[in-house]
User: What shape does this take?
Amino acid sequence: MNPVLKKSIPRFSESLTRRRRSAWLDVWAARGITMVAAGVGLATVLVFLFICVEAWPALVGQVSEGPTNTAIASGDLDRVPDESMQRFLGLSPSEFASKTREQLRLLAEVRAETLAEERGEEQGQGGAYVRPTDWQHLILPHAWKGYETPVYLWQPSGAGPRFNLIPLWWGTFKVTVIALVVGVPLAIAAALYVSQVATVRWRVWLKPVIELIAGVPTVVMGFLALGILAPVFQRVFGVPFLLNGMVAGLAVGVAIVPVIFSLAEDALSAVPRDWVRAALALGATPWEAVCRVVLPAAAPGITAAVLLGAAQALGETMIVMMVSGNAPTLDWSLWDPVRTVPVTLAIELGEAARGGPHYRVLFLMGFLLLVLSVVLQGLARGIRTRQARLRGEGMA
Assistant: This one.
Protein backbone atom coordinates (compact mmCIF):
# COMPACT_ATOMS: atom_id res chain seq x y z
CA MET A 1 0.00 0.00 0.00
CA ASN A 2 1.06 3.51 -0.71
CA PRO A 3 2.73 5.03 2.39
CA VAL A 4 0.86 8.24 1.78
CA LEU A 5 -2.46 6.42 2.07
CA LYS A 6 -1.31 4.70 5.27
CA LYS A 7 -0.62 8.06 6.86
CA SER A 8 -3.86 9.68 5.63
CA ILE A 9 -6.17 7.00 7.05
CA PRO A 10 -5.44 7.63 10.77
CA ARG A 11 -5.56 11.36 10.17
CA PHE A 12 -9.03 11.01 8.60
CA SER A 13 -10.13 8.81 11.50
CA GLU A 14 -8.90 11.33 14.06
CA SER A 15 -10.68 14.15 12.23
CA LEU A 16 -13.90 12.16 12.16
CA THR A 17 -13.61 11.44 15.90
CA ARG A 18 -13.05 15.12 16.66
CA ARG A 19 -16.06 16.07 14.58
CA ARG A 20 -18.24 13.54 16.37
CA ARG A 21 -17.01 14.78 19.74
CA SER A 22 -17.64 18.39 18.70
CA ALA A 23 -21.12 17.53 17.48
CA TRP A 24 -21.86 15.72 20.77
CA LEU A 25 -20.66 18.74 22.76
CA ASP A 26 -22.75 21.06 20.59
CA VAL A 27 -25.85 19.00 21.20
CA TRP A 28 -25.41 18.89 24.95
CA ALA A 29 -24.47 22.57 25.07
CA ALA A 30 -27.67 23.42 23.22
CA ARG A 31 -29.66 21.21 25.60
CA GLY A 32 -28.01 22.84 28.60
CA ILE A 33 -28.75 26.34 27.36
CA THR A 34 -32.34 25.32 26.66
CA MET A 35 -32.74 23.90 30.16
CA VAL A 36 -31.26 27.02 31.76
CA ALA A 37 -33.52 29.27 29.69
CA ALA A 38 -36.55 27.15 30.58
CA GLY A 39 -35.56 27.27 34.26
CA VAL A 40 -35.26 31.05 34.18
CA GLY A 41 -38.61 31.35 32.44
CA LEU A 42 -40.24 28.99 34.93
CA ALA A 43 -38.74 30.88 37.87
CA THR A 44 -40.08 34.16 36.45
CA VAL A 45 -43.55 32.68 36.08
CA LEU A 46 -43.44 31.27 39.62
CA VAL A 47 -42.40 34.64 41.07
CA PHE A 48 -45.21 36.35 39.20
CA LEU A 49 -47.70 33.72 40.42
CA PHE A 50 -46.45 34.07 44.01
CA ILE A 51 -46.98 37.83 43.89
CA CYS A 52 -50.44 37.32 42.40
CA VAL A 53 -51.42 34.78 45.07
CA GLU A 54 -50.23 37.00 47.92
CA ALA A 55 -51.94 40.08 46.47
CA TRP A 56 -55.19 38.34 45.49
CA PRO A 57 -57.04 38.78 48.85
CA ALA A 58 -56.40 42.53 48.77
CA LEU A 59 -57.26 42.68 45.07
CA VAL A 60 -60.71 41.15 45.59
CA GLY A 61 -61.32 42.79 48.97
CA GLN A 62 -61.18 39.63 51.08
CA VAL A 63 -58.29 40.40 53.41
CA SER A 64 -58.38 38.43 56.63
CA GLU A 65 -57.69 40.63 59.62
CA GLY A 66 -56.39 37.77 61.67
CA PRO A 67 -57.74 36.28 64.88
CA THR A 68 -59.70 39.04 66.64
CA ASN A 69 -62.10 38.80 69.52
CA THR A 70 -65.67 39.99 69.45
CA ALA A 71 -66.20 42.80 71.91
CA ILE A 72 -68.37 41.88 74.90
CA ALA A 73 -70.38 44.71 76.42
CA SER A 74 -70.13 45.14 80.18
CA GLY A 75 -73.92 44.81 80.42
CA ASP A 76 -73.74 41.31 78.91
CA LEU A 77 -71.27 40.10 81.51
CA ASP A 78 -73.85 37.98 83.37
CA ARG A 79 -75.09 36.30 80.15
CA VAL A 80 -71.65 35.32 78.80
CA PRO A 81 -70.13 31.96 79.80
CA ASP A 82 -67.10 32.18 82.04
CA GLU A 83 -64.89 30.43 79.44
CA SER A 84 -65.74 33.00 76.76
CA MET A 85 -65.20 35.88 79.16
CA GLN A 86 -61.86 34.43 80.26
CA ARG A 87 -60.65 34.14 76.65
CA PHE A 88 -61.90 37.63 75.83
CA LEU A 89 -60.00 39.17 78.77
CA GLY A 90 -56.91 37.02 78.20
CA LEU A 91 -56.78 35.82 81.82
CA SER A 92 -55.64 32.51 83.20
CA PRO A 93 -58.21 30.41 85.14
CA SER A 94 -56.68 31.38 88.49
CA GLU A 95 -56.58 35.08 87.59
CA PHE A 96 -60.17 34.98 86.37
CA ALA A 97 -61.32 33.25 89.55
CA SER A 98 -59.61 35.86 91.75
CA LYS A 99 -61.49 38.79 90.16
CA THR A 100 -64.80 40.13 91.40
CA ARG A 101 -67.71 40.81 89.05
CA GLU A 102 -67.07 44.53 89.23
CA GLN A 103 -63.42 44.08 88.37
CA LEU A 104 -64.35 41.85 85.46
CA ARG A 105 -66.84 44.46 84.22
CA LEU A 106 -64.17 47.18 84.29
CA LEU A 107 -61.68 44.92 82.52
CA ALA A 108 -64.29 44.11 79.86
CA GLU A 109 -64.89 47.82 79.21
CA VAL A 110 -61.16 48.51 78.89
CA ARG A 111 -60.68 45.49 76.63
CA ALA A 112 -63.57 46.53 74.38
CA GLU A 113 -62.15 50.04 74.00
CA THR A 114 -58.68 48.67 73.24
CA LEU A 115 -60.07 46.22 70.70
CA ALA A 116 -62.06 48.94 68.96
CA GLU A 117 -58.95 51.13 68.77
CA GLU A 118 -56.75 48.33 67.43
CA ARG A 119 -59.22 47.49 64.69
CA GLY A 120 -59.59 51.12 63.69
CA GLU A 121 -63.24 51.27 64.67
CA GLU A 122 -64.65 54.78 64.52
CA GLN A 123 -67.88 56.43 65.51
CA GLY A 124 -69.97 58.11 62.84
CA GLN A 125 -72.22 56.86 60.10
CA GLY A 126 -74.01 54.65 62.55
CA GLY A 127 -70.79 53.57 64.26
CA ALA A 128 -70.04 51.19 61.39
CA TYR A 129 -66.74 49.41 61.42
CA VAL A 130 -64.26 50.77 58.88
CA ARG A 131 -62.26 48.15 57.00
CA PRO A 132 -59.06 49.92 55.93
CA THR A 133 -58.39 47.34 53.20
CA ASP A 134 -61.61 48.00 51.28
CA TRP A 135 -61.01 49.54 47.87
CA GLN A 136 -62.93 52.67 48.78
CA HIS A 137 -60.47 53.32 51.59
CA LEU A 138 -57.47 52.32 49.46
CA ILE A 139 -58.10 54.90 46.74
CA LEU A 140 -60.65 57.41 48.09
CA PRO A 141 -60.30 59.97 50.91
CA HIS A 142 -61.97 59.24 54.22
CA ALA A 143 -62.80 61.30 57.31
CA TRP A 144 -60.67 59.33 59.73
CA LYS A 145 -60.85 59.83 63.45
CA GLY A 146 -59.19 63.13 64.38
CA TYR A 147 -59.71 64.67 60.92
CA GLU A 148 -62.62 66.95 60.16
CA THR A 149 -62.46 66.48 56.38
CA PRO A 150 -61.75 63.43 54.20
CA VAL A 151 -58.02 62.92 53.69
CA TYR A 152 -55.62 60.51 52.00
CA LEU A 153 -53.52 58.76 54.63
CA TRP A 154 -50.87 56.08 54.60
CA GLN A 155 -50.32 55.09 58.25
CA PRO A 156 -49.82 51.32 58.38
CA SER A 157 -48.70 51.14 62.00
CA GLY A 158 -50.38 52.00 65.27
CA ALA A 159 -54.01 51.81 66.24
CA GLY A 160 -56.39 52.15 63.34
CA PRO A 161 -54.12 51.58 60.30
CA ARG A 162 -54.79 53.54 57.11
CA PHE A 163 -53.71 52.06 53.80
CA ASN A 164 -54.58 54.70 51.24
CA LEU A 165 -52.42 54.12 48.16
CA ILE A 166 -52.84 57.50 46.48
CA PRO A 167 -50.00 59.35 48.36
CA LEU A 168 -47.53 56.59 47.46
CA TRP A 169 -48.51 56.44 43.79
CA TRP A 170 -48.56 60.22 43.63
CA GLY A 171 -44.97 60.33 44.88
CA THR A 172 -43.99 57.57 42.44
CA PHE A 173 -45.41 59.39 39.43
CA LYS A 174 -44.00 62.74 40.59
CA VAL A 175 -40.46 61.37 40.78
CA THR A 176 -40.91 59.53 37.47
CA VAL A 177 -42.15 62.63 35.63
CA ILE A 178 -39.29 64.76 36.96
CA ALA A 179 -36.81 62.05 35.99
CA LEU A 180 -38.20 61.87 32.45
CA VAL A 181 -38.21 65.66 32.07
CA VAL A 182 -34.54 65.69 33.07
CA GLY A 183 -33.29 62.47 31.51
CA VAL A 184 -35.08 62.33 28.15
CA PRO A 185 -33.72 65.63 26.69
CA LEU A 186 -30.20 64.84 27.90
CA ALA A 187 -30.27 61.30 26.50
CA ILE A 188 -31.78 62.23 23.12
CA ALA A 189 -29.44 65.22 22.70
CA ALA A 190 -26.46 62.99 23.44
CA ALA A 191 -27.79 60.33 21.05
CA LEU A 192 -28.23 62.92 18.28
CA TYR A 193 -24.71 64.24 18.75
CA VAL A 194 -23.09 60.81 18.83
CA SER A 195 -25.02 59.41 15.86
CA GLN A 196 -25.26 62.47 13.59
CA VAL A 197 -22.56 65.01 14.50
CA ALA A 198 -19.61 63.39 16.22
CA THR A 199 -16.74 61.97 14.21
CA VAL A 200 -15.96 58.29 14.28
CA ARG A 201 -13.11 58.88 16.71
CA TRP A 202 -15.30 60.76 19.16
CA ARG A 203 -18.14 58.27 18.74
CA VAL A 204 -15.91 55.38 19.74
CA TRP A 205 -15.12 57.13 23.02
CA LEU A 206 -18.39 58.90 23.88
CA LYS A 207 -20.84 56.02 23.55
CA PRO A 208 -19.05 53.63 25.96
CA VAL A 209 -18.48 56.45 28.46
CA ILE A 210 -22.17 57.40 28.55
CA GLU A 211 -23.28 53.78 28.75
CA LEU A 212 -20.77 53.24 31.56
CA ILE A 213 -23.01 55.32 33.84
CA ALA A 214 -25.44 52.40 33.87
CA GLY A 215 -22.80 50.36 35.70
CA VAL A 216 -22.49 52.83 38.58
CA PRO A 217 -24.27 51.41 41.67
CA THR A 218 -27.42 53.33 42.49
CA VAL A 219 -26.32 53.63 46.11
CA VAL A 220 -23.29 55.59 44.91
CA MET A 221 -25.48 57.91 42.86
CA GLY A 222 -27.78 58.34 45.84
CA PHE A 223 -24.81 59.17 48.04
CA LEU A 224 -23.61 61.79 45.55
CA ALA A 225 -27.09 63.31 45.35
CA LEU A 226 -27.34 63.34 49.13
CA GLY A 227 -23.92 64.87 49.72
CA ILE A 228 -23.68 67.29 46.78
CA LEU A 229 -26.95 67.89 44.94
CA ALA A 230 -29.30 68.29 47.91
CA PRO A 231 -27.15 70.85 49.84
CA VAL A 232 -26.53 72.88 46.67
CA PHE A 233 -30.25 73.11 45.89
CA GLN A 234 -31.11 74.07 49.44
CA ARG A 235 -28.41 76.74 49.48
CA VAL A 236 -29.29 78.17 46.08
CA PHE A 237 -33.09 77.99 46.15
CA GLY A 238 -33.63 78.15 49.90
CA VAL A 239 -36.02 75.18 49.92
CA PRO A 240 -37.46 74.20 53.32
CA PHE A 241 -36.56 70.51 53.04
CA LEU A 242 -33.11 69.19 52.26
CA LEU A 243 -34.53 65.92 50.92
CA ASN A 244 -37.41 66.31 48.51
CA GLY A 245 -39.00 65.06 45.32
CA MET A 246 -37.05 67.38 43.03
CA VAL A 247 -33.67 66.11 44.18
CA ALA A 248 -34.86 62.52 43.89
CA GLY A 249 -36.23 63.13 40.39
CA LEU A 250 -33.01 64.77 39.21
CA ALA A 251 -30.88 61.91 40.52
CA VAL A 252 -33.15 59.29 38.96
CA GLY A 253 -33.16 61.28 35.71
CA VAL A 254 -29.38 61.02 35.51
CA ALA A 255 -29.60 57.30 36.28
CA ILE A 256 -31.95 56.57 33.36
CA VAL A 257 -29.91 58.51 30.79
CA PRO A 258 -27.77 55.50 29.71
CA VAL A 259 -30.82 53.31 29.00
CA ILE A 260 -32.58 55.93 26.89
CA PHE A 261 -29.34 57.03 25.21
CA SER A 262 -28.32 53.52 24.15
CA LEU A 263 -31.64 52.62 22.53
CA ALA A 264 -32.18 56.07 21.02
CA GLU A 265 -28.69 56.11 19.54
CA ASP A 266 -29.26 52.71 17.97
CA ALA A 267 -32.53 53.92 16.46
CA LEU A 268 -30.91 57.09 15.10
CA SER A 269 -27.92 55.23 13.70
CA ALA A 270 -30.22 52.75 11.96
CA VAL A 271 -31.64 55.50 9.72
CA PRO A 272 -29.98 55.07 6.30
CA ARG A 273 -27.38 57.74 5.58
CA ASP A 274 -28.65 57.92 2.01
CA TRP A 275 -31.82 59.59 3.31
CA VAL A 276 -29.77 62.35 4.91
CA ARG A 277 -27.68 62.78 1.78
CA ALA A 278 -30.83 63.00 -0.33
CA ALA A 279 -32.25 65.70 1.93
CA LEU A 280 -28.99 67.65 1.76
CA ALA A 281 -28.95 67.30 -2.01
CA LEU A 282 -32.44 68.80 -2.17
CA GLY A 283 -31.23 71.89 -0.38
CA ALA A 284 -31.97 71.10 3.26
CA THR A 285 -29.56 72.20 5.95
CA PRO A 286 -27.99 69.54 8.20
CA TRP A 287 -30.29 70.57 11.06
CA GLU A 288 -33.36 70.37 8.81
CA ALA A 289 -32.28 66.94 7.63
CA VAL A 290 -32.00 65.76 11.23
CA CYS A 291 -35.32 67.27 12.34
CA ARG A 292 -37.41 66.33 9.27
CA VAL A 293 -35.82 63.07 8.17
CA VAL A 294 -33.82 61.38 10.92
CA LEU A 295 -36.02 62.10 13.94
CA PRO A 296 -39.34 61.07 12.28
CA ALA A 297 -37.75 57.87 10.98
CA ALA A 298 -36.29 57.03 14.39
CA ALA A 299 -39.36 58.13 16.38
CA PRO A 300 -40.60 54.57 17.15
CA GLY A 301 -37.20 53.57 18.53
CA ILE A 302 -36.93 56.76 20.58
CA THR A 303 -40.43 56.18 21.96
CA ALA A 304 -39.46 52.66 22.99
CA ALA A 305 -36.35 54.04 24.69
CA VAL A 306 -38.43 56.56 26.65
CA LEU A 307 -40.87 53.85 27.75
CA LEU A 308 -38.04 51.67 29.02
CA GLY A 309 -36.57 54.66 30.83
CA ALA A 310 -39.95 55.30 32.45
CA ALA A 311 -40.14 51.67 33.57
CA GLN A 312 -36.71 51.96 35.17
CA ALA A 313 -37.65 55.23 36.88
CA LEU A 314 -40.83 53.68 38.27
CA GLY A 315 -38.88 50.87 39.90
CA GLU A 316 -35.92 52.87 41.20
CA THR A 317 -35.53 52.30 44.92
CA MET A 318 -32.15 53.08 46.45
CA ILE A 319 -31.69 56.61 45.08
CA VAL A 320 -35.24 57.62 46.02
CA MET A 321 -34.92 56.06 49.46
CA MET A 322 -31.82 58.15 50.19
CA VAL A 323 -32.86 61.58 48.91
CA SER A 324 -36.68 61.79 48.73
CA GLY A 325 -37.45 62.40 52.41
CA ASN A 326 -39.77 59.33 52.56
CA ALA A 327 -42.90 61.22 53.60
CA PRO A 328 -46.20 60.12 51.97
CA THR A 329 -47.41 63.61 51.12
CA LEU A 330 -50.00 64.57 48.52
CA ASP A 331 -49.30 68.04 47.10
CA TRP A 332 -48.11 69.75 43.95
CA SER A 333 -44.90 71.23 45.35
CA LEU A 334 -41.76 69.73 43.87
CA TRP A 335 -39.74 70.69 46.93
CA ASP A 336 -41.69 68.65 49.50
CA PRO A 337 -40.67 65.15 50.63
CA VAL A 338 -42.30 62.24 48.84
CA ARG A 339 -42.49 58.49 49.23
CA THR A 340 -42.76 56.04 46.36
CA VAL A 341 -44.17 52.54 46.06
CA PRO A 342 -40.78 50.76 45.60
CA VAL A 343 -39.34 52.54 48.65
CA THR A 344 -42.38 51.58 50.74
CA LEU A 345 -42.01 47.95 49.72
CA ALA A 346 -38.32 47.95 50.56
CA ILE A 347 -38.82 49.56 53.98
CA GLU A 348 -42.02 47.96 55.26
CA LEU A 349 -42.33 44.50 53.71
CA GLY A 350 -39.79 42.95 56.08
CA GLU A 351 -41.70 44.24 59.12
CA ALA A 352 -45.24 43.33 58.02
CA ALA A 353 -46.83 40.28 59.63
CA ARG A 354 -47.28 37.56 57.02
CA GLY A 355 -50.90 37.26 55.96
CA GLY A 356 -51.98 40.43 57.74
CA PRO A 357 -53.68 43.46 56.15
CA HIS A 358 -50.42 45.41 55.89
CA TYR A 359 -48.72 42.45 54.21
CA ARG A 360 -51.53 42.00 51.68
CA VAL A 361 -51.68 45.68 50.78
CA LEU A 362 -47.93 45.80 50.20
CA PHE A 363 -48.16 42.83 47.85
CA LEU A 364 -51.07 44.52 46.11
CA MET A 365 -48.86 47.55 45.44
CA GLY A 366 -46.07 45.28 44.24
CA PHE A 367 -48.48 43.52 41.89
CA LEU A 368 -49.73 46.81 40.44
CA LEU A 369 -46.15 48.05 40.02
CA LEU A 370 -45.16 44.82 38.29
CA VAL A 371 -48.14 45.01 35.92
CA LEU A 372 -47.37 48.64 35.05
CA SER A 373 -43.71 47.84 34.41
CA VAL A 374 -44.58 44.84 32.23
CA VAL A 375 -47.04 46.94 30.21
CA LEU A 376 -44.45 49.65 29.57
CA GLN A 377 -41.79 47.15 28.58
CA GLY A 378 -44.27 45.27 26.40
CA LEU A 379 -45.19 48.48 24.59
CA ALA A 380 -41.52 49.27 24.06
CA ARG A 381 -40.85 45.77 22.75
CA GLY A 382 -43.84 45.96 20.42
CA ILE A 383 -42.74 49.30 19.01
CA ARG A 384 -39.21 48.06 18.37
CA THR A 385 -40.50 44.85 16.76
CA ARG A 386 -42.83 46.78 14.48
CA GLN A 387 -40.04 49.16 13.48
CA ALA A 388 -37.73 46.23 12.65
CA ARG A 389 -40.49 44.51 10.67
CA LEU A 390 -41.14 47.63 8.62
CA ARG A 391 -37.45 47.80 7.78
CA GLY A 392 -37.30 44.12 6.94
CA GLU A 393 -34.88 43.37 9.79
CA GLY A 394 -34.85 40.58 12.32
CA MET A 395 -35.66 41.24 15.95
CA ALA A 396 -33.45 39.61 18.54
The chain has a mean pLDDT of 81. The chain has three domains: 17-60, 69-118, 166-390. The first helix runs from residue 3 to 59. Residues 17-60 form one domain.
